[in-house]
Amino acid sequence: MHILTGLILSRLLAGDKKKKAFRGFRNIVEIRHHIPGRVRFYIPSLINNTGAGHNLEKQLIKADPVKQIKINPVTGTLLIIFEQEQIEVATLTGVIVKLLGLEQEIEKTRPSIVGKELYDILKSANSSLYESSNGFVDLNSLITISFLSLGVYSLLRSPKILPAGLSLMYWAYNNSMRNMGQPCS
Predict the structure, then answer these.
(1) Which of 20, 37, 90, 132 has the maximum number of C-beta atoms within 10 A of its C-beta?
(2) What's the pLDDT at 106?
(3) How far apart are the C-alpha atoms of 166 and 83, rounded to whole Å?
(4) Distance between CA atoms of 111 and 117, rounded to whole angstroms?
């Protein structure tokens, strides 16, 4: 049953052959090297996990196209020698994902490197502002006050253009309510 599900999953993931070669799933099941009949995967969940590696090996060897398997629990790599006429690398990837139960990991949204760095910069700026003001204001409060001030200024300056000022005041309200009662990190 697992192999059938893996076959279906890999067919869906393989896509058009003219596109860039399928390289697996970053930091989940990556194809590190592939030549016809031989593929090496990097699977971080296999690092120092001999139990999972043994179970995976036991299941994979049951498949007819798979001829030889070698797992290195120190590096988290999996080498498979197989009959290339009978199975594709994308199919093997799908089977491995299914056998290790990594479907949920694939579906998770992970932040980009730029997103992580931006988060770290904002967190650092927030802590710095909080510390330098002796806990009087943090970045969230400053942004809320700025939106509120700009909204009031916009309403007073041009009362005929209501949406801009009201939108800024609404953003200030939402920002303050969303983060109310949360301590500065």
Answers:
(1) 90
(2) 86
(3) 66
(4) 10
d(C-alpha 161, C-alpha 15), whole Å:
51
Strands (E) across 36-119 are located at: 38-42, 66-72, 77-82
Domain containing residue 103: CATH number = 3.30.70.100
Of 53, 73, 107, the position where a domain reaches its end is 107
What average pLDDT is seen over the chain?
Answer: 83
Amino acid at 67: K
Closest residue by Cα to residue 77 from 30, 35, 37 = 30
CB 155 within 8 A of CB 162: yes
- Residue 185 within any structural domain of the chain: no
**Nearest-5° Cα angle at 66, 61 to 70:** 65
Q: Which domain holds residue 145?
A: 113-178
Residue 77 tokens read as: 């790599």
Per residue in 11-47, pLDDT (tens digit) is 666 655 555 678 889 889 999 999 999 999 999 999 9
Q: Indicate if 34 and 85 belong to the same structural domain.
A: yes
60 contacts 93 by C-beta, under 8 angstroms: no
